[in-house]
Amino acid sequence: MKAIVYERTGDPSVLELVDRPVPEPAAGEVLVRVAVSGVNPTDWKARRSFPLPVGWQIPGQDGAGVVEAVGTGVDRKLIGERVWIWEAAWQRPWGTSAEYTLVPVRQVVRLGDASFDLGASLGIPFLTAHRCLTAGELLPDSLRPGALADHIVLVQGGAGAVGNAAIQLARWADATVVTTVSSAEKAQLAAAAGASFVINYREQDVVEEVRKIAPDGVHTIVEVSPSRNAATDVQVLRHGGAVCVYADDEPEVGIPIRPLMMVNARWQFVLVYTEPTAAKAHAVRDVAAAAEQGGIRVGVDAGLPLHHHPLAETAAAHQAVENSTVGKVLITTSET
User: Fold this and answer.
1) Which of 120, 177, 294, 295 could disulfide-pair with 290, CB 3.0 to 4.6 Å?
2) In the 8-state DSSP scheme, what is residue 221?
3) Could you give the 3-state DSSP secondary structure of residue 26?
4) In terms of C-beta distances under 8 Å and separation of at least 24 residues, what long-range contacts does 270-277 make, across chains too?
């Protein structure tokens, strides 16, 4: 099989296209012929600095394809199923940037008739967004239509991958969604994703605009830039609300303690890989349901432009994500 492998950390030049034998699934594993691999910021960050688990690594946490074989203890009815994959390369060498990958069975989810492009876009962004929409005191543990009715959600940075996912999931759950963007082009993408209100923070006063929409404040904030937005967040959060931080634009952030204390606010830090087991199970189930019901989409019409690369150009795909390309970067890995 063809696979992208790196044996040392570094820039995209460490990624090599190699031939490897197709692996066999061990007990509890499935072998997936990968059709599309999703690229996330965590992939290039791991490639640059994370230790290699066994001296080599196939990158790629997310993907979609068809189950080709199963190990002992796994229901053989899975063979031939179209699936999406989450966290394939977390503390394991078998990522999704290859024609085949090995995954623990619990990390594949039936995709049904949805596209492989959608399946490869679900893992990191949508599971992260789900956690941000369910971790606060005023929020439900699980999402479904109606779960966020009467809730107002602020998504800081609505044109990013997690921002887009948060908008789509929150709207599927019937929230009112306010989002911030930095340009007219990004405003169009956020609106396409389903945002109820879009604020250009370069041209408008975010606090003033949010308070017009939510005089009592928002229930939760999905936060991409805590160091830049902390002062704004505290002014638009309602009593008992939460700021859910999923990105680290700076290594440290200062927060105004007394104003947050006065409203019993919560700062919730989110890393999808280490979130509580029950929360992860809710997220996988709910994201799968949203995809099945058509509540999640990809493409320009969903505010998430797609950028496809062949497997041999994985280095270019990594560089595109590292350069903050707007939209979803995908790698076509096989002809499944």
Assistant:
1) 295
2) E
3) coil
4) 270/128, 270/131, 270/132, 270/135, 270/244, 270/245, 270/246, 271/246, 272/87, 272/124, 272/127, 272/128, 272/131, 272/246, 273/87, 273/90, 275/131
Instruction: Tell me which DSSP letter residue 121 carries.
Output: T
Domain edges within the chain = 2-121+304-332, 126-273
| Amino acid of residue 247 | A
Distance between CA atoms of residues 152 and 220, nearest Å: 7
Amino acid at residue number 283: A
**Yes or no: is domain 126-273 CATH 3.40.50.880?**
no
Q: 2-121+304-332: which CATH number, 3.40.640.10, 3.40.50.11540, 3.40.50.150, 3.90.180.10? A: 3.90.180.10
- Residue type for position 174: D
* Token code pair at residue 260: 């947050």
How far is residue 95's CA from residue 5's CA, in Å, rounded to a whole number?
A: 9
- Listed in order, strand segments (DSSP E) in the chain are 2-5, 16-19, 29-39, 62-70, 82-85, 100-104, 108-110, 152-156, 176-181, 197-200, 218-223, 237-245, 266-269, 306-310, 328-332
Strands of 148-228, DSSP E? 152-156, 176-181, 197-200, 218-223
**Measured between alpha carbons, how far is 235 from 260 in angstroms, rounded to an integer?**
9
pLDDT tens column, 21-63: 999 999 999 999 999 999 999 999 999 999 898 999 999 999 9
Tens of pLDDT, residue by residue over 154-209, are 999 999 999 999 999 999 999 999 999 999 999 999 999 999 999 999 999 999 99
Angle between helices 226-236 and 206-213 in degrees, nearest 10: 40
Q: Max alpha carbon distance in the chain (Å)? A: 60
Residue 89, both tokens = 């390369």
